[in-house]
Specification:
78% helix; mainly alpha; 157 residues
Length: 157
């Protein structure tokens, strides 16, 4: 668990920045551009397909420590995070004052991210010690990659 904390912290910083960018409305402006939403969907799908490939083809066993720099980039350059944050920011109002509403939504999103991602880190720390054979690890990686591809297909349909 302790070894994953730098990765976790970097991911949270990147996601918090992505959430702030969405809260300011920058992503909403892209939707006003003709084909802007289509371009964002294509970018998000391409990213998810690349991520699925990276997961499915990850070395087994993967004993190297995660890099905090890659976690920050994953958080800040994650198109699906921008889409999720933009939809959350624009879908309803918590507070009638626009700037205060955006700040409140940002605080809630960051709090939920931190709690959920910390829970996943804890689960990962528990599962990390399971003695899996390389073939079982490869099957799990391929299954996760296929699940991401299925999510892409469902989103495109």
């Amino acid at each position: 668990m302790r070894a994953g904390l730098p990765f976790y912290a970097s991911l949270q910083i990147g996601l918090a920045i992505a959430c702030a960018i969405s809260a300011t409305g920058i992503i909403a402006l892209l939707a006003l551009i003709p084909f802007g939403e289509v371009a964002l969907s294509i970018l998000a799908t391409a990213y998810l397909m690349w991520l699925a490939w990276r997961i499915a083809s990850a070395p087994v066993p993967a004993n190297r420590a995660p890099m905090a720099t890659s976690a920050f980039l994953l958080g800040i350059a994650n198109p699906k995070a921008y889409l999720a944050f933009a939809s959350l920011m624009g879908s309803f109002r918590l507070i009638p004052i626009a700037g205060v509403d955006a700040a409140a939504k940002w605080i809630l999103c960051v709090a939920v991210m931190m709690i959920v991602d910390l829970a996943w880190l804890w689960v990962g720390a528990l599962v990390h010690h399971l003695p899996l054979r390389p073939r079982a690890e490869r099957a799990a990686n391929v299954a996760m990659g296929c699940l991401i591809l299925a999510a892409c297909a469902a989103a495109l349909l």
